[in-house]
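Researcher: Next sequence.
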Amino acid sequence: MKKNLSLLTIFFLLLTACGRKEIVIFYENDMHCAVDGYIHIAALRDQASKYTPYTAVVSAGDFIQGDVAGSISEGEYIIDIMNAVGYDAITIGNHEFDYGVYQHFNLMSQLNASVVCANLTYITGETIHLPYAIHRYGTVKVAYVGAATPTTYNTSTPTYFLNEKGELCYDFHTTDTYQQIQIAVDDARKNGADYVILLSHLGDDTELSPSVGLIQQTTGIDVVVDGHQHHVLNYKIANAKGDSVILTSTGSKAQYIGKIKIPAEGEIRAELIPSVKSGVPLTSLTPTAKQVKQTIDNITLLMKEQVERVIGYTQVPLTDKGKDGERATRNGETNIADFIADAMRQVAGTDIGMIHGGSIRADLAQGNITVGGIISVLPFNNSLAVVEATGQQLLDAMEVGVMSYPEENGDFHIASGLRYTIDDKIPTSVQLDEHNMFVGVGQTRRIVKMEVLNANNQWVPIEPEQTYTVGGLNYTLTSGGASGMFRMMHPVPCNPIKDTEILQKYIQFLGDTIRADKYAMPDNRFEVL
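Model: Next structure:
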């Protein structure tokens, strides 16, 4: 009997040892259609598979939007590429809703991976995606819990989340995000998870439910793979019990590829590997990497004729950056913002044209302008919209855009036919609700001067009681985006052409050439005292 027991014990120990080979999990966040990064991920996974059978690839969201491949296919080309890589689990970023809720569900159903999100439910409380998924690697169970930023409601398009009656039918749990995640973590542990990895699209220093605060107020999580803020992170934070939790993030657009190691013995750890975005070449293509590259090549061929079509010429670079080389569209005026605002005004035939900094995602180099270049500038598939607004409504709305100045704010607006001056020493009194949606303005105002162009092309003070027409994107003007700063204005019927078509029409209006004498420099539409 003792001999049999001893043999059984030895057999069990051998089985356990075989099951506890190292687990390697590659991760990314905010890829935003940086397709070459997927080749690198596939190559890294193949290389790891040579020394362990337990490998995985996961994502912390924002993958279907950000460049031409996403825009042209409304995300489907990116799903094809991710399926070629072979993802195990993903959570959703706010930009996973950019092509509408129905397309979101369509894309997620096509993705051959566990789609997890603990803090998105129907307003009735029913779950939409799995809160978590447990994957087994040998004898080890790893739970992937998902978390979307609760600001998705207004950083995507708010009307997407309303029913036909205008009632909210989806809940991102703005006030209890951490509690929803803790419930999922506890349930995963109860169901045998040895490790819990949170795929988080919260952002480490966001105002609402940041990942740092999440770690400090929860227990049971081993690693937080974070997204949304595009930061490069890899350090430890103490949780509610004082246990160390890894917080890691790869930047954006495959700046780094993350690698979590769960060794047979010892502590879980994470590292960041410089990727093709950082100039690191792939020395060889592994079998899966070849398949991914072939998928990308096929997609590129399908897009080639369309994206390379020349639609005009620019005599000067139209840039989204300031003099220091840093992004400036979210807290300052750039010549590309001036150009886009002018396009909105001219094509819509309105008094004023508007563009918010968060929509501008690339610049246009001097030379030929292609369809692909235009799509890269405005990749969100928005449409033209027109509203009527009183001068007072415009004064109120524009306060939202400068409430954070000089900090970046995606709601920051540059206009055509309107210019304004702010005093950033005055504290903001903008009022937002629990969804970060604009409610009103208090006693103090940062905008100290606002002028509009009259019929004689003269700058005159804006009249609070006068009505003006405003042309821009449906996202901001009629769909509740940009913190809903324009949602109290009156919509006007118009031809809802796509954002990229607006720019093409304006380039045609300019005689197919963007001239240096008009757009070499910004022309003082926004000033700071």
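Model: The chain has two domains: 20-302, 309-528. Residues 309-528 form a domain with the 5'-nucleotidase;  domain 2 fold (CATH 3.90.780.10).
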